[in-house]
Specification:
By secondary structure, this protein is an alpha/beta fold. It folds into two domains: 219 residues, D-Maltodextrin-Binding Protein, domain 2; 159 residues, D-Maltodextrin-Binding Protein, domain 2 (3-Layer(aba) Sandwich). It is 42% helix and 16% strand. The strands form two sheets. Strands 1, 2, 3, 6, 7, 8, 9, 10, 11, 12 and 13 form an eleven-stranded mixed sheet that branches. Strands 4-5 form a two-stranded antiparallel ribbon. Strand 1, helix 3 and strand 2 form a beta-alpha-beta unit. Helix 7 crosses helix 9 and helix 11 crosses helix 14.
Amino acid sequence: MTPTNKSQKAALATLRAATASRRAVLKGALALGATGLLAPAFSRSAFSSSGELSWFTWEDYASPPLVAAFEKATGIKINVTTYSSNEDCLNKLKAAGGAGWDLASPSIAWIAAHVDNGNLGALDPARLKNLGNIFPSFMETSAQLGAQRDGKWYALPYDWGTEALAWNTEEVSLEYGKASYGDIWAEEYKGRMLTRQRSSMLCTGLWLERTGKLPEGTMRKAYDDEAAFDLGYNTAAEFVIAHKDHIVNWWKGTADTQSGFEQDGAVIAECWDGPIFQLKNQGRPYAYMAPVEGALTWIDSLAMTAKPANVDQAYAFLDFVMQPEIGGIIAENSGYSSVVQGFDGFVPESFKKNFAEAYPGDAISKLWVQGTERPWFLEKRQALVDKISAA
């Protein structure tokens, strides 16, 4: 579970530092007024006031409240195209030669692959007056995981979230400190489990490590060592294929996750936090919590494409979302946490409650930060994803 290389150690330390003040807020220790000191309220005069912007992003990131707030504050129309996976984002930007959109939102771990494929252009941090509002620790982690190369920034952190355990509370009962990724394979949930191909291998591999069926640290080493990848991911893939009858469906994004529970009969899953938080806020009977192996943790970004048509408007949007008030809008409507200091002073009690229930006890100290996914890693993993899908 513990990171084995310098980059991963720094990444985990970063998230611990970044979430420290967040947990304090969730416990009521930080007053709303204090966060207001971090940045002034946004105003129309601070941004470009005409034109349009094209954003290629995740399906639940461009919420109507966020879009409306940006358009009202700036006069810039925002056009949104969505994708449901990092693979989709990478391949479509590559096919378009880095054109067609102004901004994209790949996960930080995928930025290196995007840069290698010519999908992204370098950013000019000097054009962003609100850049200092981002937790410095998230900037450091993003740089170490591939957002910065040769002194140039190709992406900036936008939000963060996790993949962990979700379940229907009317059908399943799990307890923090005992709940494990292995629970999704329990016989009583056979044919009623939801996951996605590549995540099923990682979480199963971590469970196999914990139970002594894989050497400790195998799944962490897999990011840097092909032999470790072959051992960990091949072993996990074989387990997934052998237990394919446990899976009711695969998820790719928010809609698939929610329909998996609401329509397909899933009662337990390994999935993102945001879709479950959204369902909980609607009064639906679901829970989300980190397992003993640690919640898989990711950071998503905002990046300028290689051939943007609306550069000034893109910078206006980048600066806009780096404000605490806007971070609150992002978090409330997506279910994911903003990387902007003070955002947690602008979220409803439901968000704070969801966060506290998802990461009780020492869960924050056990966050399992996913590493940089290099081209060879992506190629090998995709081959196993294809094998699992074919099975």
